[in-house]
């Protein structure tokens, strides 16, 4: 009976990813600055909170507990940090499931925005989703964050629907966006702003 239950549980709650969530660190050069890209650890949490405050006008949408909780999900999550020397300049997080990868968080320090660091991080996660044979990559973005929406659209994300009051701290709506990696059957109308 236990074997049968395990098979059923795996059917209803598949946790199998096709790829390993480990990440090999590397360096990249952006505008003459050497940046190190590596997997986030609990030691990065204080710097993640400082970066959030810089990006989100003094707010920290994610708490220390939120980051700790996400970083423990090693089977299906990957969080990357980008440092210039000892300064955190960007991060991204994603959860991977057999059918969908979801970008949970992305931020680039104000002094480093516009240098394609966010695009490069998104491309890394999209590549992982393809290797995992995910059908799509999804994310949410504040409805008034036009710069981010343009970046996501330039990569191929499409706005699908609005989540009312998604950001509880500011009571701001979010736009759900999806990048389809495989052909899909759903006919949608384009969401415009």
UniProtKB/TrEMBL annotation:
Keywords: Acyltransferase, Cytoplasm, Transferase
Domain N-acetyltransferase: 35-182
Transmembrane residue ranges: none
GO MF annotation: an example: N-acetyltransferase activity
Keyword Transferase: yes
Domain of life: Bacteria
InterPro entries according to UniProt: AcTrfase_RimI/Ard1, Acyl_CoA_acyltransferase, GNAT_dom, YpeA/RimI_acetyltransf
Family to which the UniProt record says this protein belongs: Belongs to the acetyltransferase family. RimI subfamily.
Protein name: Ribosomal-protein-alanine N-acetyltransferase
Taxon lineage: Bacteria, Bacillati, Bacillota, Bacilli, Lactobacillales
